[in-house]
Write a structure and sequence with these properties.
Keywords: Carbohydrate metabolism, Glycosidase, Hydrolase, Polysaccharide degradation, Xylan degradation. Pfam families: Glyco_hydro_67C, Glyco_hydro_67M. This protein is of the alpha/beta class. It has three domains: about 150 residues, Chitobiase, domain 2; about 325 residues, Glycosidases (TIM Barrel); about 170 residues, Alpha-glucuronidase, C-terminal domain (Alpha-d-glucuronidase, C-terminal Domain), CATH 3.90.1330.10. Helices cover about 35% and strands about 15% of the residues. The strands form four sheets. Strands 7-10-11-12-13-14-15-16 form an eight-stranded parallel β-barrel. Strand 1, helix 3 and strand 2 form a beta-alpha-beta unit. The chain is globular and about 80 Å long. The N and C termini lie far apart (about 55 Å).
């Protein structure tokens, strides 16, 4: 196995086990397989068999015999005779469509309980998709158990109904906010449905339980608008079929102004009868060509995108126009809530971008069709390294909602700096909104357990491109893996997910895997420690969003301010003296955020403008925290480099060098952030570092 193919395989089986005893322990399960299903060549069941047989051969070198019989989606590994003699619960237990059950039964060997051999394994899915998820779960089990199979009874179903990936790919082959090369879907304004990379991507997504994907940028340009025209729909269909083999339903990002750009109309007014008829005819044409299409993702009236505001209408009018057109075909409209004034006057301290989504959408609750889902960013600003949870999420109990995350590290290191985002997402998912009493956590709302949503879940912006390792930085693969695992089960802990990915990609119980796991879990706090402090965000180079520029957005139109002056820093969003944003939360959270004494330190400057001498709960002043954390973050990256160098013989040469070079680049970035941020605030405040380290006056 070359290092190049190891990168492209990501966490899927790619390396032959080198331990003969490990292979022997699994052998009783892996030499023969009995499949019971109606096998459709292009269905998820066929993909499940292919993944299982291929994974076994890759890991062990064994080529199992395969017997196919009619029946429900079920696989028996090892001894069908032994399985037949066991309890039949596995064959009668009701299962949801995407659920699976896995039973591994161990048998005594000469009465030796200390060293049992596997007798059989039974894997049953609630459907072909459920079976496929079960196969990937079994392969994950094989990859993370170093000593062979253990007796198991596992029953799993996804917690979130919708588990979606949004691509920001353009048809010219570029990717907006792409840090991993070009698009795998498009080149020179054509679709690439014949690409093996697309098949590989579908496998990766299915392996972590993703069941939906939107394949073009939410900023729909002229060429992407044509994806819903007759000339491109045959290729759209072929692309949809690839994902369909892996149980993934495909969506398209739609241009709200398509009737003007494609249809010859002079309006896109959602209440205009000609516009309604245009979309009805277009939906009929689309679904005749691609009947399994999931629907549309729409960004409207946001960052200069067209929308219903042009015609004096609101977002419910706009979303319902498309929803009514798609409803006869079972289609869904994913309507993004990232709407704000992107031409703000920085002189106006009363305008607050953080308020915008709530102010635009909250009063529309109950007016959206049942096949509309509002897609709400996890924070009120824009995927910053630290934000509070959006107060809009859960605040519209009569409107379907999904929570949107960003796997692409736009503001968190752009896949040059390692930043494992699972702990950040966990913090959002575990947040209690109190909007329907205690226990109204984001993860419960997304799962449809708090309000009577007909459609809900989580979505995320993808981080992949055509780089061989998919994500630019080898370690950034962990974010794609981690999002899928959290979308399936938001109760999984960050350390469990980090351990799974590290074992699957660097080997189970290897020194490299153990260090990578440790590094991943430290990386978000470390990245935060040398970038923007205590929740203010945005101290990045405008438009580019990677390197430090403390005032880059301070006097801009985007509403992204930190308001640092000679005495203090932070944005007053309180009800008493500020923008009133705090009042968008339920009382239990509002009262905490309103008070500087109660507000969590990590969000203090998001909610309050405080003096540099304000004492944090840690006992440090704000200014000393800024100094200390910048130095500590940069020093930690240097220690990572030293540790990784010690592991040169524990990883393949290509990945060792790649990660080393990325860490070295991260160290330089951390030093620059350290020196620029510390110097900036030293010059602003005039307060020296208590520890007398180098500041540049």
């Amino acid at each position: 196995m070359t290092s190049s193919s190891r990168g492209s395989a990501a966490w899927l089986p790619a390396d032959r086990w080198q331990d003969p005893e490990r292979i022997e322990r699994w052998r009783p399960l892996l030499e023969r397989i009995e499949a019971r299903m109606e096998l459709r060549p292009e269905g998820p069941g066929a993909s499940a068999l292919q993944e299982l047989v291929g994974g076994i051969k890759m890991l062990t070198g064994l080529s199992p015999s395969l017997t196919l019989k009619a029946g429900s989606p079920l696989l028996i590994l090892g001894s069908p005779e032994s399985a037949a003699r066991s309890s039949g619960e596995w064959n009668t237990l009701p299962l949801a469509e995407e659920a699976y059950v896995l039973r591994i039964k161990m048998a005594d060997e000469d009465g030796n309980q200390a060293c049992p051999k596997a007798e059989y394994a039974i894997l049953r899915g609630g459907s072909e998709r459920g079976l496929l998820y079960g196969v990937f779960a079994l392969l994950r089990l094989m990859g993370t158990q170093p000593h062979g199979p253990r007796e198991s009874d596992i029953a799993e179903a996804p917690r979130n109904p919708l588990r979606m990936i949004d691509q920001w790919d353009n048809m010219d082959g570029s990717v907006e906010r792409g840090y991993s090369g070009g698009s795998i879907f498009y080149r020179d304004n054509r679709i690439l449905p014949e690409s093996d990379r697309i098949i590989g991507y579908a496998r990766l997504l299915a392996s972590v339980g993703i069941n939906a994907i939107s394949v073009n940028n939410v900023n729909v340009h002229r060429e992407e608008t044509k994806l819903i025209t007759s000339s491109l729909l045959p290729d759209v269909k072929r692309l949809s079929d690839i994902f369909g083999r892996y149980g993934i339903r495909m969506f398209l990002s739609a241009n709200y102004a398509a009737p003007l750009e494609l249809g010859g109309l002079d309006t896109a007014d959602p209440l205009n009868e000609d516009v309604k008829q245009w979309w009805r005819r277009k939906a009929e044409e689309i679904y005749a060509a691609v009947p399994e299409l999931g629907g549309f993702v729409v960004k409207a009236d946001s960052e200069n995108r067209p929308g219903p505001f042009t015609y004096g209408r609101d977002h419910a009018d706009g979303a319902n126009l498309l929803a009514d057109a798609l409803a006869p075909y079972g289609g869904t409209v994913m309507w993004r809530c990232f709407v704000y004034d992107c031409h703000q006057d920085w002189r106006d301290r009363s305008t607050d971008r953080a308020r915008a989504a709530y102010d635009h959408f909250r009063d529309l609750d109950g007016r959206f069709r049942d096949n509309v889902i509002l897609q709400i960013k996890n924070g009120p600003m824009d995927f910053q390294v630290r934000e509070p949870v959006s107060p809009l999420f859960g605040a519209m109990p009569q409107t379907n909602q999904v929570m949107e995350f960003q796997i692409a590290q736009e503001y968190t290191g752009q896949q040059r700096d390692v930043c494992f985002l699972v702990p950040q997402w966990k913090k959002s998912l575990d947040f209690d909104t109190f909007l329907n009493g205690a226990g109204s956590t984001v993860k419960q709302i997304a799962a449809g357990k708090v309000h009577p949503f007909t459609r809900s879940g989580v979505a995320a912006v993808s981080n992949i491109g055509d780089d061989d390792n998919w994500t630019g930085h080898h370690l950034a693969q962990a974010n794609l893996f981690g999002f899928g695992r959290l979308a399936w089960n938001p109760d999984l802990e960050s350390d469990v997910i980090a351990a799974e990915w590290s074992a699957l990609t660097f080997g189970v119980d290897t020194p490299a895997a153990k260090f990578v796991e440790e590094l991943l879990l430290e990386s978000w706090p470390v990245y935060e420690s040398y970038t923007a402090p205590l929740g203010v965000g945005w101290m990045v180079q405008p438009h580019y969003h990677y390197a430090v520029d403390v005032d880059g957005y301070e006097y801009s139109k985007w509403g992204t301010y930190h308001f640092a002056d000679r005495t203090g820093i932070g944005v007053d969003r309180t009800m008493a003296t500020g923008t009133g944003y705090v009042g968008q939360y339920a009382a239990e959270n509002r009262d905490i955020y309103e008070s500087p004494a109660e507000c969590p330190d990590e969000l203090l400057l998001f909610f309050h403008h405080v003096p540099y001498t304000h004492v944090l709960k840690s006992g440090k002043t704000v200014i000393q925290h800024i100094y200390d954390s910048r130095f500590e973050g940069a020093e930690k990256v240097e220690r990572w480099i030293a540790r990784w160098r010690e592991l040169e013989s524990e990883a393949d040469h290509e990945r060792f060098l790649h990660i080393l070079r990325r860490l070295e680049g991260q160290a330089e970035n951390a030093k620059q952030w350290r020196d620029v941020v510390n110097t900036y605030f030293y010059r602003k405040s005039g307060i020296p570092d208590e520890r007398e380290r180098m500041l540049y006056a």
